[in-house]
User: What shape does this take?
Amino acid sequence: MSSLFDAVVDEDTLALARGGDRVGLERLYRAFERAVFTLARRMTHCPDAAADVMQNTFLRAFRSIHQYRGEAPFGHWLRSICATEALMHLRAGRRFLELFEPAEIPDEKEPAVEDICQFDLEKALSLLPPLPRSVLWLYHVEGYNHAEIAALCGKTVSFSKSQLSRAHGRLRQLLADDAQGAPAAAPLRPPLRSLL
Amino acid sequence: MSHLSESLRELPAFEPPADGWSRLQQALQPAPRRRRRATAALALAASVLAAVGIVRLMPPQALSPADPEIAALMQRSQALERHLVRLRPQVVVWDARYAATTQAIESDIAMVDLQLNHASAAGARTLWENRVSLLDRLVATHQAAGEGPSAVALAPAQQEWSL
Assistant: This one.
């Protein structure tokens, strides 16, 4: 399944947008508003913050669209702006002080999610600390590698790996707790495996 | 692709706020008149910056230094100029405060360059020291402007991850 940011933008639209034409700008906005908002929401876990991040993302993108040279898909360029904006929001909020623990985190394998329903995964995701959740999302959904995530965060590859490992460990723990804590409700939910 | 990647990708997208485009349009509107004046002033400042930049790029004529200290200062000056060339594209939108500071520094550099073209050997060293000092400040201003809220967002959100 491809990312929402993979939407193709035609040259006419880009040319219009580069010229500041409102029609071109709105086309770009409509093509990527869900992608941008979803990424922002996943990283900030707050609808209002995500709306602000989305607004700033499009403003920055439209004001610097002349810098987009078409070497990568437009959506990928926009995605990097969005991810940066969201990380800046998290940093400004200092909501992740607890994240800066020693990097000596054991290498956590990915949690097994075959029998976990979407509801549980969504819930577990919402309980992850912001930065590990952001790294998890950028890595698993948006396809960034550790070097790219490290560049976005201005940190090392080890930092990205440790945050992902931390996210895996916490997710595994949350999903295990959920599976143990709600055995009666589980059969009512469609297993995730059936959705894949 | 791992099960986790697949499962995460299967999670539904969020619906953006319905008024997102109208909010964005408002933010993209031309500034009101008072702001336009400020913008015009900034544009004027930018043109001055550009003009001064051209002057600054003209190397002073004291190019054959007998004094090794002056030669070192010239090398330092050239290194800072190269650094500035790399920094300039990173600042797309100038904050008024940084623009004013930059304009002042660039004007000072232009003045130093003018003096260097006619300086005696004795005065040249001081002028080159001033030039290097001003270029250092100019680099610092560009770096600050590039990291500020009005800088474009493509640069990494580096900086203070470690607190």
User: Anything to note?
Assistant: Chain A is about 65% helix and 0% strand. Confidence is low (pLDDT under 50) at residues 95-104, 183-196 of chain A. Residues 157-181 of chain A form the longest helix (25 residues). The radius of gyration of chain A is 18 Å.
